[in-house]
Design brief:
Largest sheet: 6 strands, mixed
Shape: globular
Number of helices: 8
CATH superfamily of the largest domain: NAD(P)-binding Rossmann-like Domain
């Protein structure tokens, strides 16, 4: 990429690895924005929440056949399955030189598309991974989710997709459904949390964890916090955060060095929670980034991001099932739904 000064702005040119031009911006100018130019912040009653709804498409047009290569997603641990899909899609992208060629990545029960559906977490991670691949390679890849009751190995009738110009579909009882964003009517529901219990926050010394800790103390009167991070008390700003939380009303703030993806280390931390302040809340806000385009990702880079988010979430779930929790919250990311380019591993980990 080349950036050249031009008047009050810059001129931008970019090329691919072979030197072929891919982008030219004649002029890019940045300007300061005054506070009065910004729209006022929304109120809690605004309908700013969204969900995914699945809409049924009309029957396919048999006169518009589609020719797909197919990648069937198997079973196994999330690292194994997402790694196999990563390599399979990469190999197809490298080998397939026909621009019109399309690859169908077929999962089973990866999305909540029909009544009574239950989600396969591994399949959901595959959808997050492939959504980013779709963003980087538009019109090349289609995600197809079959009914959770479909037997493993059963052939999928991709003829149902004839004439369907959609990147993501679910097939339920012979019908094709497609995802659409829909607003959720705002509704507030109070979740009472025992103020004398302990709330654990992973990524507790990070930006999101720190903001949440302050909110819990000020907004909900939480008095005891257990903040986990890989660096623990040595994390930048950890001591200041603990002091601030104490000044806001917390009576016990412990910052512990613990990687929640290490099951044994996490179990040790949980065992040290005092009985007179039992664990009553868990918030998983930890995560790491290792961004890169889809074709450059490796199993190692995929595992690094999955470990911090997905593996840690599984450990937290398994090790706290016997606790009397008021809340168990997992932080996610819109990248899992929209497939942010350059973040396929992060999208998979957050799906």
């Amino acid at each position: 990429m080349a950036v050249h000064a031009q008047g009050d702005g810059v001129r931008v040119q970019a090329a691919d690895g072979a030197g072929r031009p891919v982008l030219a911006v004649a002029s890019l100018v940045s300007r300061e924005v005054a506070a009065d130019q910004l729209s006022p912040a929304g109120t809690p009653d605004d309908d700013a929440l969204f969900t995914i709804e699945w809409k049924t498409l009309p029957p396919a047009d048999p006169s518009a056949p589609e020719d797909f290569s197919t990648l069937l997603v198997g079973g196994g641990p999330v690292e194994q399955v997402t790694g196999e899909v990563l390599r399979g899609v990469q190999e197809w992208l490298e080998a397939e030189e026909t621009p019109a060629a399309r690859l169908a990545v077929v999962t089973r029960g990866a999305v909540l598309a029909g009544p009574g559906d239950s989600v396969d977490p591994v399949g959901a991670a595959v959808w997050g991974l492939v959504r980013s691949a779709q963003s980087e390679h538009p019109d090349r890849i289609v995600l197809v989710d079959t009914d959770p009751t479909t037997a493993v190995g059963d052939e999928v009738d991709l003829g149902l997709l004839a004439g369907v110009d959609e990147p993501q579909v679910a097939v339920r009882e012979g019908q094709v459904l497609v995802p659409r964003l829909a607003r959720i009517a705002s509704a507030t529901r109070s979740v009472p949390v025992d103020r004398d219990g302990t709330v654990l926050i992973t990524g507790g010394t990070g930006t999101l964890g720190g903001l949440l800790a302050r909110h819990l103390v000020v907004g909900h009167g939480i008095r005891r916090l257990l903040l986990l991070s890989r660096q623990g008390p040595d994390a930048p700003g950890a001591a200041d955060l603990a002091a601030e939380l104490s000044s806001l009303g917390a009576v016990d703030v412990r910052i512990v060095a613990c990687d929640a993806a290490d099951r044994d280390a996490l179990a040790t931390v949980l065992a040290d929670i005092p009985r007179n302040a039992p664990l009553t809340g868990v918030v998983h806000a930890a995560g790491v980034l290792d961004d890169g385009v889809f074709t450059a990702l490796t199993q190692e880079r995929l595992n690094t991001v999955l470990r911090a988010k997905a593996t840690a979430a599984a450990n937290l779930d398994e090790l706290t099932r016997g606790a009397d929790l008021d809340l168990f919250v997992l932080y996610s990311s819109a990248s899992a739904t929209f497939g942010t380019p350059g973040q396929a591993n992060y999208a998979a980990a957050n799906a």
